[in-house]
Amino acid sequence: MLPDSDSAAVRSSSPDWQSQTPAPFPLLAISATFTAEPLAETLAFWMRQLGFAYQVRFAPYNQVFQQLLDPSGLLAGNRDGINILLVRFEDWARFKPAAGLEELEADIRQVLALVESAARSSAAPLIVAICPSSPRFAADRARADFVGRMDALAGERLRGLPAVHLIAPEELSRLYPVDEPHDPHGDELGHVPYTPEYFAALGTMLARRIHALRAAPYKVIVLDCDDTLWAGICGEDGPEGVVIDPPRRLLQEFMLAQREAGMLLCLASKNNPEDVEETFRAHAEMPLRLEHFLATRLNWAPKPTNLVALAEELGLGLEAFILVDDNVKECGEVRANCPEVLTLALPDDAGQIPAFLEHVWAFDHVRITQEDRARSQLYAQRLERGRAERQAASLEEFLASLNLDVRIAPLTAGQVARVSQLTERTNQMNFTTLRRSEAQIRELVDSGAAECLTVQVSDRFGSYGLTGVMIFNAREDALAVDTFLLSCRALGRGVEHRMMAHLGQIARQRGLACVEARYRRTQRNAPARLFLESVGAAYQEYDGAELRFRLPAEHAAAVVSKPDGMPKAAPAREAGSAPEERRPLDYERIAIELASPGRILEQVRGARRARSASGGAAAAPRTELEARLAKIWAETLGLAAVGVGDNFFDLGGHSLLAVEMLSRVRKELGAELSLEVVYSGAFTVAELAKAIELKQLEQGASDEYAAIVAELDQLSDEEVRALLAQEGLESP
Question: How far apart are CA 1 and CA 416, in angstroms?
Answer without folding.
Answer: 12
